[in-house]
Amino acid sequence: MKMFNNSVQGVAIITALLFSNLSTAAPTAREIMEAVNARDDGDNAIMQMEMRLVDKQGKQRVRKMKRWAKDQIDEQQGEVSRSLLFFLEPTDVKNTGFLTYDYDAPGKDDDQWLYLPALRKTKRIANDDKSGSFMGSDFNYSDMTDPDLDDYSFTLMKESEVRGHPVWQIKAVPKSKETIEETGYKQSVLFVRQDNHVVVRGVRWLEKRGRLRYLDVKKLEQIDGIWTPLETTMTTKQGKKRVHKTVIHYSNVRYGADLPEGMFTVRRLEKGAE
Fold it and tell me: Is 227 a member of any domain?
């Protein structure tokens, strides 16, 4: 959702190194995932979002949101990707806010805060709670930030296609029980498009209840040269039966907006969408 933020220069360097060796050797799984994390996913972004929650009977709940995102350089933490999201509709969740600091520094835990206007309370999301559902959706809090690659072992399984585009299939296994408990996933298989390094499909094994989650980027377009997901689904299944599904649509996506640094603070979070 990456809901899943790095410089163009980093992409150029990694991509050049990666593809310069393709004639002699395929890239490793780790190299591919480094390219995924380094790809340019835009900066100073503003977008509208619609989240559709679908239960196993097909009953739907719709929530509308607005999100702002900005990459910043911190003298102590290095690059930090900050995002602020507010729920606009329906009334029962209006002005609920979610603030995220996604740190690029290895080993640094990301920070997340959830503002609940009905209680006038801001809750900091502890690491132990990041495997929980984000606002009743099929996305965990841990899905809202990029993973620390050092926490995983990656294996390049094979090459295949998704919607006519060549992809690498990569297996990601957490190295520690701590990572499993924090993310809620025992392992994942990721489908990475070879032309743009976007994860367009994924299968995740949940730690509890023996369930699987299926990620699918159904619509992907370039906006201002940035590959941007415009429709993403996450479906939770028990065996072959669908338990729940979340569909997110993105619209009015704009990059290069003038976003003040003071916008991404807990104080601003507690003011609501205004």
Answer: yes
